[in-house]
Task: inverse folding
């Protein structure tokens, strides 16, 4: 709505105030991001002494050289790609058909199924019983522990269901049924090709979750070969500061942490960039889909 | 009514019931393929959500792994009593509630304010830039966020302490001082999620009828007055729903970040129920005790959710159910 014509002096003043506030918000969020990028390619001495505060100083790519030469980072990257790919595939396999079934008014029991799914948003077994179930299933230290316990998210099923209900014309389903198409045929031949937007949104939501997830790995994975990137990062970025308490650790771990600490000083900022890179690259292109997904979710389902 | 008609009615009912059953069966058979669609999700929720719920009973048992959920011996409220009588009980409760309330007070209004401000800005490059940039931190992993916090706040090499020293103050060791933990946790959360949190409010604001604004302008309302009397009232239902959800999650802190930022020096103010459950259950393998603590947490959560929902329904006619 264009109301510039009716603006009074106080309105103009108010508008000025709005832009000032937005600029402050912009700077507060943007500054740390720029700082990390600059710090990752600056000479660490300048960074650590506070002489680098915005733009890179004495540019060096030594940090990145070390990152790309580090085996556990590469290994973590590879495993994260595997978990993200496999995990997202399973998520879609579970979410999309379930959401479609729940969107159908003639699906007997949809209320019941919706209720038992939604109930898990408010009541859970909690950390310990869930862990015990995963353990009893023999999933500990396997790839499956990273993908099966999060095979679906209720919220995403609800979002996808709302999509099916609101965008697929009912007539299409009826016409296909009259033509004698089975539900399978209807789903694969007609519904799926029309569902690209929601599949993309779901893949993004789940994919980013897998890419950034560390908690499942923390509790279910102790085999270093299966560590996702985030666990490797945790050792480099977070645990280094606690190495002073290494008295209780075995020599091995203490040594590992010590060498990590040396490494960490140089590559600290670089790994933040490298690990977030895929998300950073896709984000600007996909932002509007993310936003759309959240907005569908905000509707009453 | 004579006996005859009652019987007739009854048999009619019975016929209706059998008819209904038949049509129900027919409905199910007609769409049997849809049940195959729902099957993977159903299996998932049963195995990874309902079996663990059933497993909560170990909170009242002495869980022995070889005996499983069912076979272990009942011990009543032993684990709960141990928790309530422990010296750390009040600290855990205080930290859990303290961090949550702090987070709610600081973190809840900010997305609303930012959304109102963004709504006032003209659609264009600048507005889009602010949105793109403020959404972005939402996509950074908690591990990287924690790494950033630790790096920025380091007493010797962190940029924030360099600024503090530049202004002539003593450097602060934020991460090893229990006094600072809650603030660091909450403010970093604000930095990460305020922008993203505006989306829902912006969506609600875009639904305001422009005629309302036009009418208000004709009546001589200023921009600020229009925000106060048109925009904010529009947001109230969304606010109430989000507030209920937040309050209902007050005990379920995002403990991934707490766990990452926690160290022995700030434990005094960073130890919350969730991290304690992790420590006692998974690191010390006290399964039953940890499950009891977790259950206590969940029960308080559920009570809060129901209570807040009830209050909201009474006072604002908006509620989750």
Result:
């Amino acid at each position: 709505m264009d109301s510039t014509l009716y603006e009074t002096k106080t309105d103009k003043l108010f508008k000025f105030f709005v832009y000032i506030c937005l600029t402050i918000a912009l700077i507060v969020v943007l500054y740390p991001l720029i700082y990390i990028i600059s710090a990752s390619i600056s000479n660490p001495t300048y960074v650590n002494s506070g002489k680098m505060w915005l733009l890179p100083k004495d540019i060096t790519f030594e940090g990145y050289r070390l990152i790309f030469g580090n085996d556990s980072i590469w290994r973590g990257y590879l495993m994260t790609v595997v978990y993200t790919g496999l995990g997202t595939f399973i998520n879609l396999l579970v979410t999309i058909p379930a959401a479609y079934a729940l969107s159908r008014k003639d699906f007997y029991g949809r209320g019941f199924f919706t209720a038992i799914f939604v109930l898990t948003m408010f009541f859970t077994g909690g950390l310990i019983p869930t862990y015990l179930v995963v353990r009893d299933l023999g999933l500990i230290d396997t790839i499956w522990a990273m993908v099966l316990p999060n095979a679906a998210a209720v919220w995403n099923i609800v979002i996808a269901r709302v999509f099916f209900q609101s965008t697929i014309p009912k007539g299409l389903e009826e016409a296909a049924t009259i033509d004698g198409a089975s539900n399978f045929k209807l789903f694969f031949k007609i519904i799926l090709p029309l569902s690209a937007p929601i599949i993309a949104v779901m893949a993004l939501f789940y994919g980013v979750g897998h890419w950034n997830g560390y908690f499942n790995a923390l509790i279910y994975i102790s085999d270093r070969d299966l560590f996702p990137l985030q666990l490797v990062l945790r050792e480099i970025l977070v645990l280094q500061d606690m190495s002073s308490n290494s008295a209780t650790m075995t020599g091995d771990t203490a040594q590992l942490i010590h060498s990590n600490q040396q490494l960490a000083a140089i590559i600290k900022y670089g790994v933040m960039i490298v690990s977030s890179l895929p998300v950073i690259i896709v984000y600007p292109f996909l932002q509007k889909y993310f936003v759309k997904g959240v907005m569908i979710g905000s509707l009453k389902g | 009514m004579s006996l005859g008609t009652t019987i007739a009615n009854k048999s009619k009912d019975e016929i209706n019931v059998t008819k209904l059953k038949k049509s129900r069966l027919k409905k199910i058979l007609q769409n049997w393929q849809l049940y195959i669609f729902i099957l993977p999700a159903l299996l998932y929720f049963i195995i990874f959500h309902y079996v663990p719920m059933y497993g909560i009973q170990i909170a009242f048992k002495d869980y022995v792994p070889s005996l499983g959920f069912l076979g272990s011996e009942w011990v009543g409220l032993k684990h709960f009593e141990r928790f309530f009588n422990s010296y750390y009980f009040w600290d855990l409760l205080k930290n859990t509630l303290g961090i949550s309330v702090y987070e709610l007070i600081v973190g809840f209004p900010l997305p609303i304010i930012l959304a109102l401000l963004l709504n006032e800005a003209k659609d264009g490059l600048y507005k889009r830039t602010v949105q793109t940039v403020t959404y972005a931190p939402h996509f950074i992993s908690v591990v990287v966020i924690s790494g950033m916090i630790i790096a920025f706040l380091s007493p010797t090499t962190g940029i924030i302490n360099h600024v503090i020293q530049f202004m002539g103050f003593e450097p602060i060791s934020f991460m090893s001082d229990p006094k600072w933990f809650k603030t660091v946790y909450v403010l970093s959360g604000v930095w990460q999620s305020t922008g993203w949190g505006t989306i829902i409010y912006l969506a609600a604001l875009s639904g305001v009828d422009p005629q309302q604004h036009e009418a208000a302008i004709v009546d001589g309302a200023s921009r600020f007055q229009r925000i106060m009397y048109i925009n904010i009232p529009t947001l109230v239902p969304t606010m109430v729903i989000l507030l209920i959800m937040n309050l209902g999650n007050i005990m379920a802190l995002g403990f991934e970040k707490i766990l990452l930022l926690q160290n022995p020096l700030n434990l005094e103010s960073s130890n919350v129920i969730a991290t304690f459950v992790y420590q006692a259950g998974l690191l010390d393998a006290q399964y039953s005790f940890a499950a009891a603590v977790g259950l206590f947490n969940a029960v308080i959560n559920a009570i809060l959710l129901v209570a807040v929902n009830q209050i909201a329904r009474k006072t604002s006619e908006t509620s989750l159910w």
Observations:
- The mean pLDDT of chain B is 87.
- The longest strand of chain B covers residues 61-62.
- DSSP finds 16 helices and two strands in chain B.
- The longest helix of chain B spans residues 287-316.
